Amino acid sequence: MRAAREEVLGRIRSALGSGSVPPEIPRAYRRRGVHEPGAPTLLDLLEERTLDYRAGFVRATPASLPDAVAAVLGEGVARVVIPPELDRGWVSKVDAELVVDDPSLTPATLDTTDAVVTACALAIAETGTLVLDGSADQGRRAVTLLPDLHVCVVGAGQVVGTVPEAVARLDPRRAMTFISGPSATSDIELNRVEGVHGPRRVVVILVLPVDPDQPE
Amino acid sequence: MTPPTAPAGVGGLSNGMSFPDAARLALGDTQLRRNLRAATGTIRAKRASVVAEVEDWEELREAGRQIKASAMNRLPELLEQLEREVASRGGVVHWARDATEASGIVTELVTATGARSVVKVKSMATQEIGLNEALEAAGIAPYETDLAELIVQLGHDFPSHILVPAIHRNRSEIRDIFLREMPGVDPHLTDEPHVLAEAARLHLRRRFLEATVAISGANFGVAETGTLVVVESEGNGRMCLTLPETLITVMGIEKVVPTWGDMEVFLQLLPRSSTGERMNPYTSMWTGVTAGDGPQAFHLVLLDNGRTATLADEVGREVLHCIRCSACLNVCPVYERTGGHAYGSVYPGPIGAVLTPQLTGIERSPSLPFASTLCGACYEVCPVKIDIPRVLVHLRARHVEASGPVPSPEAVVMGATAWAMREPRRWGLLQRITRLGRLLSRGGWIRRLPPPLSAWTSSRDLTAPPRHTFREWWAENHPQDDR
Ligand code: SF4
What we know:
The complex is a heterodimer. Chain A is of the alpha/beta class. Chain A is built from five helices and twelve strands. Chain A has one domain (30-207): 3-Layer(aba) Sandwich (Rossmann fold), CATH 3.40.50. Chain B is an alpha/beta fold. Classes of the chains: A alpha/beta, B alpha/beta. β9 (176-179) of chain A pairs antiparallel with β9 of chain B. Bound molecules: iron/sulfur cluster.
C-alpha cells in the first residue's frame, strides 16, 4: 500500500517537472450578495425558486408556525419523525404519532414514517436550496431521506442570497446535505419526474420575524 | 520517464473498436439518432437559459479554470493534505496505481465485511476501472442504483452519456427492460416516466435498507478539510452515502480541489452546466466518519490509472480539469449523430476524445482524436474552459508523429491545422478554404484529393466538409445561445 502511494506521488512529481509556479486564482465573480440575509427581496426570490422546483412554500410567523406545520402535514400522515432537539412547540399541534429520532432507530424503522419536520442551517435564495448540517434540530442524514414528505422550517434571517455567502457560513467538517426541491430524475427521455428515492414532497415553511409594532 | 498509462484489457476505458467502425453502426440506427437529437437539444436549451441568468458566469469559469490549474500544479501536496485530513477524521486512504489495483483494493475491502452484494452510486471512476466485473468475479453482486444505470445494467448494455447514461433508450424500450428483468414488477406497467420511476423506487428501496456496503465516486475532494462531495438528483446517492455501515469511495487523483472556499465556484458551475438546473436536487458532503450519522467505516481509494501520464503532457494535461458536467457532449455535432457508444469508452463525446487516448496511450485509441470537427462548441460551453480543440489537434499530431513515416501527408495536414488553430482568425479562414473541398467530392465523400494529399485519401474516405462551418450554422440556428 505504501509502495503504491510513493509511486503515484513520484509519478506526479516527475510529470510536473520542477519550477512551475501555481497560477494566481482570479476571483472576480460575486463573492458577496447585495442583500443582507433575510432581506424581503431574498425571501421572495427563495419562494419563486422553491416553487420552480415544484416544492411547496408557506409563510408563517412564530405564533402561527405550529398551525402551519400541522396544516402542511395534513391528513394522510400517521407517523412523523423529528430530530432530537427540534423545538417541540413547532409540532405541538400535529395530530400524528411523533417519533423522536435517535441513532438506535434502524433505516427500516425510519422507512415506516410518513414525514419529517426539521430546521435547517441556512437557505440560498438564488438557487432555492436548503442546507442541512446535522445539527440536533436537523438530525442525521437518514431522517430527511426515508420519509416521503420533508417539512423544513427556515427562519427569515437564515436566507442568504448566493452560493458563496452560504459556503462562507458553513462548516465543511459537518456532514451536510444541500437540498433543492424534491428528489428528481430526468433519465427517461429527459422528462423531469419528481421523487425517485428521496422525499417526493418538500415543503418550506418560512418564518417571518414579528413586527414589534404589530400585536399578532 | 513518462508515467505508465492505464493497463489494456481491464475496465471501461476502451473496448477496442475504432471510432469510425462504431460510428458507422450508430449512424444506421435511426431510433438512436432521434432519441439523441431530442435529448441533447432539450438539455442544451435548459443549460443556455440558466447560464444566461448568471451575470458573472465568465468570471466563474475563469476562476474554475485557474483553481483546477493550480490544483494540478500542487497535486502531491494537496493529495497528502487530503489524506491527512480524511485520516484524522476516521477515514482510511488507499492509493491505486491502476484499474487492477483499485478494483483489487475495493474487492478486498468488501470481502472483509462479509457482504455478498453492494449498492453503487453512478460513478465514472468505477466504470473506468471495471469494478463491477471485478466484484462479480469475486462473487459479490454490484447493484447500480441510479435510474439510468439501472436501465443500462438491466438491459445488459453500456452507458452512452456521462450524465444520462440511458439516453439511447426511449420510454417503451425502458418499460420492456423493466418487465423482463425486474422481479415482481407490476405486469401492467405503463411507459409513463413517473410510473417507470415508481417501479425503480420500489425495486431499490429494500435493497437500500438491507445494504451494508456502498460504493461511490466523488465529484470533488477538498484537500483543506478532507471533505468529499457528491452531486446528484435522485437521492440514490444519499441512500448509498448514508444508510450502509461501510462506504468505499473511488476518486481520481485529479478531483482534488485546494480549499473549501473553492466549492463556491464549482457548486455554481457544475449544476448549471450539467443538468441545466440552478442547483441539482441533492449535494452530499462528508468528512471522514461522523459519529451517529451515516457509515461508521469510510475508505477513500485514490486512483491514478493513466492520470499521471496525462499530467506529463504539458498541452494535454488540462483535460484533467474536467468536472464531468457533460455540457460538451450535448453541443457536439459528432456526438449528436453517433451517440456515446461510438467512442468505445466510458468517456464519450469531446471529453472522451481527449481524455481516453491520454489515459490509455494514444496507440490504443488512435481514432478518437479524429472524432471531431474541431468546431469549438465544446470549448465555448466548458465550465472550466478546457480548450478541447487545441488538445485534439495536439493529440492528432502526437499520433501522427508516433505512427507515420515522417513527414506523412497526414502530418502535414495536421501540422497546418495546429498552426491555424493557434489563431482564431486563421482557423476561420482555413474552415472556409476547406469548404472548397466540397467541389472535389462526390456523394458527400471525398474519394481522391489532388497530390500530395492523394496519398491520404487513397487509404481512406474523407467526409466532405459541410456547406456551412459548424460555427456559422450554430450562430444561425441558436441565436439565443450566445454563451
Ligand atoms: S470537458 Fe468541460 S464541458 Fe466537457 S464534461 Fe468536462 S467540464 Fe464538462
